[in-house]
Write a structure and sequence with these properties.
Elements (H helix, E strand, L loop, with lengths): L1 H37 L4 H10 L4 E8 L2 E8 L2 E8 L4 E7 L7 H10 L4 E10 L2 E9 L4 E6 L6 E2 L4
Antiparallel strand pairs: 1-2, 2-3, 3-4, 4-5, 5-6, 6-7, 7-8
């Protein structure tokens, strides 16, 4: 009788271990699948982003053409960064308030575009400096201007 009890006890342990192992595999696959959907297409871009923006939150990756695009929040502000597949940083964009615009650009808007209102104001930072973009509208038209120098606006046309 002790032999049967020992055999039954051993069988129950083996079945329990099999079930536990199966549950662990399912849990591991679930975690890896959710991680894969949130991670970039390339590990190099992921590492470069985490190095450049260690305090980033609410990170969402996507692919645009051959680039890696990541939307994120840092210091309470929504931003977008672009990387090559090799992890090279291309640019970061974010909306800015009018107060953060260089004085010369604010004055230029006030003097030359006073019949328009600002609907969007963006700064794009790259390795070669900052470029500002402003979208202006009035009842009749919509314009996009850019400033590479931070001193004056020029018309922007999409390529």
């Amino acid at each position: 009788m002790d032999c049967r009890f020992a055999l039954l006890n051993q069988t129950l342990k083996i079945n329990f271990m099999k079930q536990l192992f199966s549950l662990l595999i399912v849990a591991l696959l679930s975690v890896s699948a959710s991680y894969a959907s949130e991670s970039p297409a390339t590990p190099a871009a992921f590492i470069s982003f985490n190095t450049s923006y260690p305090k980033a939150q609410e990170i969402k990756w996507s692919k645009v053409d051959s680039y890696e695009k990541v939307n994120f929040k840092m210091d309470g502000q929504e931003q977008t960064a672009f990387f090559t597949q090799d992890g090279e940083w291309i640019a970061t964009t974010r909306n800015i308030p009018l107060e953060q615009l260089p004085k010369a650009l604010k004055e230029n808007l006030k003097n030359e575009m006073n019949d328009f209102w600002i609907t969007d104001l963006i700064i794009m930072s790259t390795g070669s400096g900052d470029t500002y973009y402003v979208q202006l509208e009035n009842a009749d038209s919509k314009l996009i201007k850019q400033s590479v120098s931070g001193k004056r606006w020029t018309s922007f046309t999409k390529r």
